[in-house]
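Chain A, query sequence.
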Amino acid sequence: MKQNTTPWSYLLLLILAGESVFMIPFVLPRIFRPTVLEAFQLDNTQLGFCYSVYGIVALFSYLLGGAFSDKFAPRKLMAISLIMTALGGLVYATFPSYTMLKIIYGYWGFTTIFLFWSPMMKAARIWGGKNSQGKAFGLLDGGRGLVGVSLGTVGLFVFSLFITSDVSGASPDESRAAFRQVVLILSGVIVIVGLLVWFFMKIDEKTEKEINIDKIKISQVKEVLRLPSVWMLMFIVLCAYIGYKITDIFSLYAKEIMMYDQLEAAKVGTSLLFIRPLVGVVIGLLADRSQITFWLFVSFVISFISALLFATGFVTSSEPILFFISISVVSTGVYAARSLYFAVMHKGQIPLILTGTAVGVISIVGYTPDIFFGPIMGYLLDNSPGITGYQNLFWLLVVFSFVGTVVSWYYYRLYETKK
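Chain A, predicted structure.
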């Protein structure tokens, strides 16, 4: 793998695209979860099934899209993905029926994964070169967090702008109208980002030829499956992604347990996005200056310990300061793991030219929570009202964080200390 010679503009566009494409399917429901449930007349379980449809389509898209991304330039696939995803946002803004909403999420499973996910990871690895993988993936995830903060803040501003009455007393129709404006504006932004990626996120032709294969073959999949690092990363990504999915409920926790109104609860979701860029940058720089696989292990330890605070009922509505500290610590561990799990591919001896295929294979297991975790989360919250349902969710995070800790420690021992 060569030293990094790709310009910073390449990374900046990658960061901008990397979060924009997921804003409508995932980030908005995270920030505005109470509003989304009310506007679409859903319960938590139904929203969870929408994510399951997304996850089922994504499951096939990871592998096929991974091999596909090793043949074509990342910028072209990513640009098409952004524009197609924005078109889905226009339908989403009409507040369609529950059946149509599931179809839209299936459509997004194709546009954001088959056309986008592996190309994004490969592009980050290209930018990082030989010695800056931690910085590349740390800045990517941290930068995506900053984009999420910015676009989330814009969304909050637009939402509040169209709520003419007191937020706590806003009617369902008024909330729907305000949320529609948020979706439409962000759909326009995503289209603009897609055009910028197509025209300006370029690398020199020689490098582009070196990183793309001539023909997609089954042997590519067999080659990456022979690597122990690929199997371990499947479980590392799985455990880290469970943690990331649980951060979706912090705004709902704020509303139902901490007794915040809709806007205050949305601000809680947005405030977590401020942690993500800071964690991404810091952990990425630390990882490149020491042992990147060790910091992946540390991130799971942080997630494990902080999850115990919620699981044991230590955080209650009478302790708002403790609530903010606890969600900040949980998010730090989760975002750190998310920043690093693909950054260790170079340490795991995964060839650059097969990055897309490897990411696709890893993601088939790593991102299966998109299929099953939404309904599980909805079931636990809907069938165990109050703090009990949330405690049950955090016990799941405790378990998966522990598994992630064990596997990441073995990865560290195998590739960092036993070369």
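The mean pLDDT is 84. The longest helix spans residues 133-161.
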